[in-house]
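Need DUF1275 domain-containing protein's 3D structure for a figure. Predict it.
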Amino acid sequence: MKFDENTNSVLTLNTTLGFLAGYVDALGFIALFGLFTAHITGNLVLIGAELAEPGHHFSILKILVFPAFMIGVALAKIIAFQCQKNARNALLFLYMVEMVLLVAFMLAGMMAEPLDEDHVSELVMLTGIVAAIAMGVHSGCGRILLTDLTPTGMMTGNVTQLVIEFVELILEKADNRARRDFARYFWPIIAFGLGALLAAFAYVRFGFQALMLPIAMLFVLVCVEKWVRCEAKKLA
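Structure prediction for DUF1275 domain-containing protein:
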């Protein structure tokens, strides 16, 4: 499939952020006893399933991720608003905020080890809350600033749209627009799945230090964003 330069850049960023979201969400799920840090619907289902079991124990951590995630989204909106108001690079700031929060997620998790599902400590709760805030920032950034991208924090809607685009791809005999629209959903979904798969093996091998990969990815995005803005200023 052939894309113009701008489309290629958008697709690359979309795929990168999809991988990052899948990686962090899967690592949080494995490390924090089935907690989804970026998938609120999943937590609702798990809470219902746990409450229905005889002798269940109430999972306060799964409840706390709701306000934590919302705080992350609100934080993204406030930062973006203030940056745009003062002519600052909002995307750069949100990348850095998410990176700092993932560092805090990693450090809190390392301090909370060894984790015990039967005795959820305050540090474990802090770990889950910080992770949810980080993914709230991630999701908010996509909705506020990266509106050309497909959502990277949840894939249900993307899979639905992918099937629609696939059918259109067949019906329209694979024209360029249909190929482009199909790729917009296909590659982020694949990246999300690969991120989740890699996170599972990485956490088993490295524990919370496996979060160094998405942290490094965000650092690269910060550097790229700075470089792009510098080049744009030179051309202006």
